């Protein structure tokens, strides 16, 4: 496609792209993306290449707040000697490219970049220890005759201790692996779980509209032939998205969130309910028990060779 507009030289199949190793198994119809080399590089850079591994970057019950941040110059001086911001920046690139399993904790660590505490530094090192034990995980895609994009959206109501704002998480899957994801703190304060989940649903729908146009332009999937399925584990959100009437308890939700209803009416998006246990976006919004976290990671398409 690009060769019709630019002078280009075909160097054959790509094996590396911006630090991401591309592995193909055409016989079995499998494509894998690995950042093992990049992970080993950052582990060595921060002298963590011989560290003991851990099973999860964050576990159920871990909580962090600004109250933990240094309150005087002496304590701030202590933390200035550690490369906290460099570690978080390095982790950010990994989670953006293939390691969505650390997206939530890396986003949380980013909240304290301006004034971190030793506790936050310990968590950053724990993420490195987690990568030490899981550097062989690869984002894996399987050949399939049905290239549908399926979305999952979730929210952690008032997850932030400091300002009581919720966390949005969404993930889009295709061919057995994640193709797009996000974990971010919401910009507005919601007053119920339903509202927090609806905000997450809106964010996912906006991204879905962009992604459908992008995929259609590639000509790989006819994304306009059927509505995209978006799964949510909150039944009230599913009902509200299909209800054309306003509900008194939700009137203060900004008008832009009626965008979701509009797309449902236009049959561009089909919002369906799913059980919380099957919600793939859960690790993008909150800390989970280790076993549950590991199950979700594999279901996202992060598999070992």
Automatic annotation (TrEMBL):
Residues 1-60 form the Reverse transcriptase Ty1/copia-type domain. InterPro entries: RVT_2. It comes from the Eukaryota. It holds the Pfam family RVT_2. PANTHER family: GAG-POL-RELATED RETROTRANSPOSON (PTHR11439), INTEGRASE CATALYTIC DOMAIN-CONTAINING PROTEIN (PTHR11439:SF467). This is Retrovirus-related Pol polyprotein from transposon TNT 1-94. It comes from Vitis vinifera.
